[in-house]
Amino acid sequence: MTKSAGPEARPVVLQRCDTFVGRTMNWLYDHLRNVQRHDPVVLADRLQNRGEFPELTAITVSGSIPARAWRKLVPGRMYPRDVRMLRSYDPKLLHSHFGYVARWDSQLRAILDVPWIVSFYGADLYLLGREPEWVDAYGRMFEQCARVLALGPKMAEGLVQIGCPPDKIAIHPLGIDPSSFPSVPRTRRGAEPLRILFAGTFREKKGIPYLLDAAGVLHGRGIRIELHLVGDAARRPGDAATKEEVFRLIRRHGLEAVTQHHSWLAFEDLVRLALRCHVFVAPSVTASDGDAEGTPFVIQQMMATGMPVISTLHSDIPFIYGEHAHMLVPERSGQAIADRLMAYAEEPSRITADGLLLSKHIREKFDVRRCAASLSDLYDQVATNGSRQR
Asked: Does the model's pTM come out above 0.70?
């Protein structure tokens, strides 16, 4: 997608992020490409997987030798050619995604002289928001930006606790693209194993050990299962230790023969695997360092395919479930997860019923077109009032 031209040109919103499109960030791509009344132009530190996600204009700043020399000699000031390039898009707003990206975007906002919106998503609040240095930096950012977006009411409360003015906060959830997800009723026939799926980074807050404890309970009772773990450790401290614990627990519970590890999968491959599985488990927990989820987007994606999702009473996950929040289980309870899985194993019809119920809910309440339309509304509001709010 390229910038609009002519009398009907749509206003450009410069979208700031670190990696576009990261393997676990296709949700941002879907959200931005469905914004109808504005043209998103993505300014990223790194561009990845563009062959899979070709739409949208996405750029990086110059990596030329003169540009690198400028940044070394004049730290804290943008390379003049980069400034001219960004101004050529004539952006009307700046939207920074993730607090840890936005922290460094105040200079960019000043150069462009446009209203500024910042979105938080999880660790940028729950982990970094525990550190005084980051709270101070966020405080300066809150003063300068026009609006701060939270994924749900729990995150909004957390932003207030670290000093964000309540009147600057707007709750803005992510949405799924229904056209990207075939909704297929899940059925389990005869002696077919119960196929259980997890997908996510191997990180403490993902709660994978509690899924493995639950799988161990079923395996120990002679219930035929097939466990698919999609994901791997990333580079954050603690991820490698989490991965070691995952495979230690697989051995401890004797699950080697029934577990398949898929590391990272392309999005289409993940969807194909999901359509073969009966139930998705997202056992999110608050980590020992305070890190927590926002609203794990994979939950919404898996719901959309018609698969029941077992998740926890964690962060803003209840907000995503809405009227079905009673289906959630407590954090850090392998037994509670095992009980739900046992119910699906013993009453296969519940797999179909719960899957269709959640698919209908997520497609109606969190359609990306509706969410993106509300983002356009918010852009219009901020653009109209931006000079007063900055």
From this structure: yes
